[in-house]
Amino acid sequence: MIKGWDEGVKTMKKGERAIFTLSAEYAYGEAGSPPKIPANATLIFDIELLSWKAEDISDDGDGTLTRTVVKKGPESWTKVIDACQATIKCKILGEKSAVLHDYGKVVMEVGEAELHNLPVGINTAVKKMHRSDVCHITCTGKNDLTAEQKKILKLPENVILPKKIYEILYLLCYRKSIALSLNFANLKRCKKHGK
């Protein structure tokens, strides 16, 4: 795939047809694609989006947690892991992108999404993100909100039928928590010797 397709197609809706004019930097660049596409060529594509499938990011590969990346943040060599502190913005969207609940900015420890009445699947989703990523996350089944959480958030019980719940997730930042373990034997010895 070429960069212009990635950028263009993600702006489209199912069934939409669009014409994209891609400069060389968004197409094949200085190298071109010989023999048919010369160097630094501007290309025009007529694209119709027939369908797409969200990426299954569930731990079991059972489709209960999927994501569609709306905007990619910068790649990072560090990874979000359990016990990291993550700052996210999150909304639950219903039909026609109606906002059912806006969590606003949430500072959470990864692995404890439920403490903020977020679906348990958000723990896994955040670990697959980079800083500044914006994703649509679909949580169903075991990765969805519990009945109790839906009551607390004042959501209708049948909110996932016939449409799924989409969380727009924006990972603002994260930092690793540092776990300290003390060796009490060394601590006692230091006290004994006046250190």
- Structurally, how many domains make up the residues? 2
Helix content: 10-25%
* Number of E-state strands: 8
Query: Mean of residue pLDDT?
Result: 80
Gross morphology is elongated
Taking pLDDT < 50 over at least 5 consecutive residues as the criterion, the unreliable ranges are 177-195
The CATH topology assignment of the largest domain is: Chitinase A, domain 3
CATH second-level architecture of the largest domain: Roll
- The CATH class of the largest domain, by name, is Alpha Beta
Secondary-structure-derived class: alpha+beta
What's the total helix number?
4
Whole-angstrom Rg: 23 Å
Spatial gap, N to C terminus? 63 Å
SSE topology string: HEEEEEEHEHEH
Main sheet specs: 6 strands, antiparallel
> Strand percentage, roughly?
25-35%
Strand order of the largest sheet: 3-4-7-8-5-6
Provide the descriptors you would attach to this structure in a database record.
195 residues, alpha+beta, Chitinase A, domain 3, 2 domains, six-stranded antiparallel beta sheet, two-stranded antiparallel sheet, 8 strands
Write up what this structure looks like.
By secondary structure, the protein is of the alpha+beta class. The chain has two domains: 3-48, Chitinase A, domain 3; 55-175, Chitinase A, domain 3 (Roll). It contains four helices and eight strands, in the order H-E-E-E-E-E-E-H-E-H-E-H. The protein has helices at 3-9, 121-127, 147-152, 184-192, and strands at residues 17-22, 43-48, 55-56, 65-71, 85-93, 99-109, 134-139, 165-175. A hairpin with a 5-residue loop joins strand 5 (85-93) and strand 6. The radius of gyration is 23 Å and the shape is elongated.
